[in-house]
Each structure stands twice: as structure tokens, then as C-alpha cells.
Design goal:
Length: 140
């Protein structure tokens, strides 16, 4: 999640580190429920991996994030997955979109994701892949 956005949504939860979610792939879905195109999510995919940022989330902020991510509406399923960090494996919560994979994110949304990955120290090829993904035009 973009650092300023995370600070707004979970102000008491500092960044803990970065790592890789092995066996999962970043994709997009729920184009019909997003106000600006498809929404980011992850799907199981052996051989793939997703760069992630981990946070030390307080119980209060966890409840705020659950509401923000549409927990009451059933938009996401909250699951625990193992993340590989430089210091070893940690278990983290992920919000996985409960919608079919497919659809295009907006150019703005994709840019926010790429900027956040870059700011967190993702490898340049990973950031470049995000920046060159198909997306809806800015005017769309």
C-alpha cells in the first residue's frame, strides 16, 4: 500500500519491512465494482511472486483497515500468508479480492502501485513491469 495512504488508514502501524510473497501473482479484478477500473489483488500461481511491504498493525488499525477494505460488504477475503523477508519468514494478513480476475486498472491507480513499490525499494525490473502493464487510459 502507498505509504501516505497507509498512514491515513492505519496511523498507528509503522512499516516493518519488505519481502516476497512466493507462489502468488499480482493481478486485477472486480472492474465492475471499482470506481476507477479493476482493483489490485493476488492469486495463487506457482513460480510467481509479489513484492510486499509489511506493517506492524495494531488491533485498532486492523479494525479500521478491515472496514476500509470492505470487510462488512464482503469485497475482500482476509487471509494469512507467509512472506519471505531478509530476516526470515513472517506471517502477514492479505486482503484478497472476492471477484473474478480480469479487467484493467486505471493508469492513475497503476501509477500509485508502481510509485509505492519503488518507494519501498522494489527491484527496478518489478517496478518497470508495473509501469508497463496494460491499463485504462487517463481519460477513461
Amino acid at each position: 500500500m502507498e505509504p501516505a495512504q497507509m498512514m491515513e488508514r492505519a496511523p498507528h502501524s509503522p512499516m516493518a519491512g519488505t519481502g516476497w510473497l512466493e507462489g502468488w501473482r499480482l493481478t486485477f479484478g472486480g472492474e465492475d465494482i471499482g470506481w476507477e477500473g479493476a482493483l489490485a489483488t493476488i492469486v495463487e500461481d506457482p513460480g510467481s511472486r509479489v513484492f510486499v511491504v509489511t506493517y506492524d498493525v495494531t488491533p485498532l488499525d486492523e479494525a479500521l483497515l478491515d472496514r476500509w477494505e470492505g470487510g462488512e460488504l464482503g469485497l475482500h477475503n482476509k487471509i494469512r500468508l507467509r512472506v519471505q523477508t531478509m530476516d526470515g519468514a513472517v506471517v502477514a494478513w492479505f486482503y484478497v479480492l472476492d471477484a473474478y480476475e480480469g479487467g484493467l486498472p486505471s493508469a492513475r491507480y497503476l501509477g500509485v502501485l508502481a510509485d509505492a513499490a519503488e518507494a519501498a525499494g522494489a527491484p527496478q525490473d518489478y517496478v518497470d513491469d508495473l509501469r508497463t502493464r496494460p491499463c485504462r487510459g487517463i481519460a477513461t
